Amino acid sequence: MPKTTKSNLNTSPKALLFGLLLLVLLGLNLRPLLTSVGPLTDELINLTDASYSSISLLTTLPILMIGLLALFAGRLTMTLGYKRGISFGLLILAVGLAIRFYPPTTVLLLGSALIGGFGIALLHIIIPELTKHQYRNRLGLVTGLWSAALMGGAALGAVLTPMLADALAERYYALAAWSIFAILTLLVWLLPQNQVPAADIPPRHLLLKAFKYPRAWFLGAYFALVNAGYAGFIAWIAPFYGEFGWPAQQAGNLLALFSLVQVAGALILPALSRGYDRRLWLVIAVVTQMIGFAGLSFAPEVSPWLWSGLCGFGLGGAFPLCIVMALDHLDNPVQAGRLVSFMQGIGFIFASLMPLLTGWFRDMSGDYTLGWQLHIVVGVVILLCTLRFNPARYKQLFTD
Fold it and tell me: pTM (2 decimals)?
C-alpha cells in the first residue's frame, strides 16, 4: 500500500470540544428520515394505497444511497473537502425532509427518501475520516459518541414524530418537521468557531484502492450483516406491534427505547474495547441481539420492551465496533477513511435489502416471524466471521 503524508491536526482543546458538540449534532440528524416513518406506517399506507413492500423502500432507499455514494468517497472528499462536504450533506438532507410537507404520495415519499438519503450518505462518508483526523488517540470513545448520537436521533425520530403529528394541522407535517433541525445544525456548522482541519489528501494514484484487497471485501460483507438487523428492526418493529393493537405513539415509544438502549451499547462496548482486539465485545453484541430477535420471533407478547432493549444494545454496540475495527487496519486517517467508506459502500448496499426482504416476507406470509428468524441466522454467520479478525495480521493484509 502506498505511503501518505501526515495530516495537520488542530489540537486546540476549545476547537476539539466544539468539534465534539458538532459531532453529536451531526449524529442526531442521520436517522429521523428513517425512523419517523415507522410510527405512521399504517397511516401512510392508507393515504397512498402503498403495499408494505413499497413502504419498506422508505428505509431501503436511504441506506442504499449511503452504500452507493460510499463507493465514490474518494472523489467526493477530494472535490468537496470536509467542511463543504458536510455543509452540502446537511442542506440536501433538509431538502429531502422538507418535501414531506406536501400531501404524501408514493412517488413523493420515495423521492424524499432518495434525496434525503443522498444527504445522509455524504455525512456518512466524511464523518469517520474526520473523526480519525481529530481524535485518533480516543478513536473508540469518540466513534462511540458519534454512533450514540446517531442512535439518539433515531429515538427522537420515533418518539417525537407521533407527538408532532398530534399537534400539527396535518399529521404528515411531522415527517417534514425534521428539516428544521437539519437547517439549525447547518447554521451551527457554519459558525467561525468550527475549525475543521483540511483534508491532507495525497495524489489520487497514492490513495488506497480498497477493491484490490480481499480483507476490504470481507469487511464490507461483515458490515452488511451487522447492519442488516438494524435496517430490518427500524422498518418493521412499529407496524409489527401495531398488529397487536398498539397505538402509533406506543409503538413509536418502543422504537425509541430500542434507539436509547442502542446509545448505551454504542457508548459502553467501544469504550471497553481499549485494545485492538475487538472480537470479545463484538461477540457480546451479536449474542445479545440474537436473544432479542429470538424473543420477537417466538414470544413477542411476553416482554416486548426487553426484546427491543436487547436488540438495541447488541446492534448499538456492534455498529461503532465494526467501524473502529476497520479503522484499526490502517494508521493513516485518509487511507483508513477510504477503507471505511468502501466497507460502508458494500455493507449498506446489501443491508438496505433487509427491510425489502422482510416486507416481502410480510406480504407473502401475513406476519413478521420469518423476518425475525432470518436475523437469528444472520447472527450466527456474524459470529463465525468475527473469529477472523486477528489484529496481529491487520497491517500485512494491506501490504502490496
Answer: 0.74
